[in-house]
Here is the input.
Amino acid sequence: MIQSGWEAVIGLEIHAQLATRSKIFSGAATAFGAEPNVQACAVDLGLPGVLPVLNAEAVRMAALFGFAIGAEVATHCAFDRKNYFYPDLPKGYQISQLAQPIVLGGQVVIRAGEGDAAVEKTIRLTRAHLEEDAGKSLHEDFAGMTGIDLNRAGTPLVEIVSEPDMRSAAEAVAYARKIHAIVQYLGICDGNMQEGSFRVDANVSVRRQGETRLGTRTEIKNVNSFRFLERAINYEIERQIELIEDGGQVQQQTRLYDPERDETRMMRTKEAADDYRYFPDPDLLPVVLSRETLDAWRAALPELPDAKAARYQADYGLSAYDAAVLTSDKAVAQYFEQVLSEGAAAADPKLAANWITGVLAAQLNRHGLEIGACPVTAAQLAGLLRRVQDNTLSNKLAKEVFDGLWQGEAETADALIAARGLQQITDSAAIEAMVDAILAEHPDKVAEYRSGKDKLFGFFVGLVMKAAKGKANPQQLNEVLKARLGAGA
Here is the structure.
């Protein structure tokens, strides 16, 4: 929560690694996890006499992103050299786009807030441009020294720059998640934040409410999880407000987030564009794209998150919130659709949605897992939901079966139900007998209920459920109890 009287202004720069098999200006591989420096060729190292050759697939992927956000995709774009000296930048410059990027403008709609109370907000994008990645400095692996791994040098990136339209860490995370979903749906980036395929830089400033002039901003570099992004921004907002209120001034800096201390720390003073001495790259021709090519690429766009969410609401009657949650991650949407494709669950998509966004999501969060690593397959969950639908299981027993499937106790819900004897009691005579026995044991409570103490109804439900070991069908039990208590049992 931002302190009263203050407003945060946040913009994000997102680096998404494009899912090409080779680098943007060379034929070297981009696969993650190779031994250091085995995927850096002469072009990546900038050795004398070598020339870059543009990877056409990287251009197509960047254009797809532009179409997905409703941006202008340029028919003419060009590359520039961004000059700086750092050990993991072997050429002494990075090939990027400044004056003529491939994508200009665009916008996305985010949902900020919890549940159905979430509010939609439009976030404008400034641009998205192609560039090559630098290498990686390894500070922890060598005592008193730094190692350099140049495997990433030359890896294709699309840098996605937003306008400073966000006013809270929650909005920034919602925006980052939306971009993350879009690049995954497009198939242009795997979105793996742990491997560095999707990295976020947050530009943060504060100003007093009512001010229109932007404050001095700091940039938090290379945040690699949504949770850390929220914590880093919140820390930086508080730091800047406290600094100003104590009479200090915010310095334009590049900062790092330390998750162990939950704080941001200064790396260096922030450079301006002039410091990089940009100039057109003399080794690369401008890129010219025909309208026919762009139209063909646009026609190949897949169903994107917003369109899929709208379809889920229209076809399955889901709420805007549930549809947004299910479509926020391509893998989650695929899991949901696989559950529906298993048959019986398709008759009640709301039930499937409730389980995936509720019980399943909570279990994944508890264990720190993505849905791709979920121990309960879509087929297993569909089998479980079939038993909820046909009243074999109550919701309580279904959660017990789910936990068993999660632990790998059985291959199917049916096998686990049989092994544990968890079939729900739906025999009316059996439920009536249990109800009659409980009421006979507590005539005083029956009299109190009939005298107006309606809350005792739950008391009777609990006793019957205990006698039934939780297996009595709740709806039938309630109906029998109401009939007996109302009939003078």
